[in-house]
Amino acid sequence: MLITQPYRLKNLELPNRLVMPPMCMYQAIDGVPNKFHFTHYTDAAFGKVGYIIVEATGVMPGGRITDNCLGIWDDSFIPLFKEIVDEVHRYGSKIGLQIIHAGRKSETTGLRRLAPSAIAHSDRYEVPEAMTHEDIETVVKAFGQAARRANLAGFDAVEIHGAHGYLVHQFTSPLSNHRVDAYGGTTENRGRFLREIVDEIKKYWPEEKVLQVRVSATDWDEEGLDVAEVGRILQQVREKIDLVHVSSGGNVMRSIPLKEGYQVEFASYLKKHLGLPVIAVGLITSVEFAESILNEGKCDLVALGRELLRNPYWMHSVLASDGKVDQLITSYGRAYPVKQK
Q: What is the model's pTM?
């Protein structure tokens, strides 16, 4: 099976092609990782997930999605994240950190709501402040410092959260960015915030380590982003990033036609047009479907979200069915009949 095969990108050597995507757990206090996070992420490694991406982690207190989301705005968080990273590595998996500023979708208490323009996401959210150039510079620098801390904690990769209606996505989409300065209007201008973040991160993030971006490939709105426009925005940073994690939606309230693998073709398009490896995600649950899209060359890695919450040891049975019980710890491998290769 292709999903059980190793994959290498720069110095990121994965034991297989299965990814656990970042999923908000809402279990932090003051942004600090705790025993819940240790168990959650190390259990995925014990389950033989090849590549684990830690949930959206705020680069600033007000950049978190909620008060109960993780943060990495202070050096005191480094050793706590390092404990998780070291244990994940002990089980043979690799681990990345998704860093975020939630912008107008932040629900943190008593902190500023920032956005490219003073437009609320929906009736449920407050109207945010339109960011000044000083605000933009502050946030960009916060992303760089978050990457510095992630490197000191030993993370194998950093993912910029540019999807799901959070701040980077808000800048790239004409639905949420009505600016008339250098950060709004044209494709080039709407991509400027992302370019500046990438450049700032690269001051601190080692060249040999993977830098990736998660994108929403469409706003599911005729006036918003489509996959071609997202491709043009990513083209501006193509030479500086290594991997694209392809999702969709989240910037405005729209109906999304859900079905198995409903975002896979977006991943395939960006892989082809950018010449970069991609992670496909979205209602992928079966090994048969995951194998089909890998074998068809539509993606390089496959992410299972809720399926791994239901069954964190999903990969155990896949390895066993592929005759690779020897990759499991003996205590668990005995649960499966040995299959001849």
A: 0.97
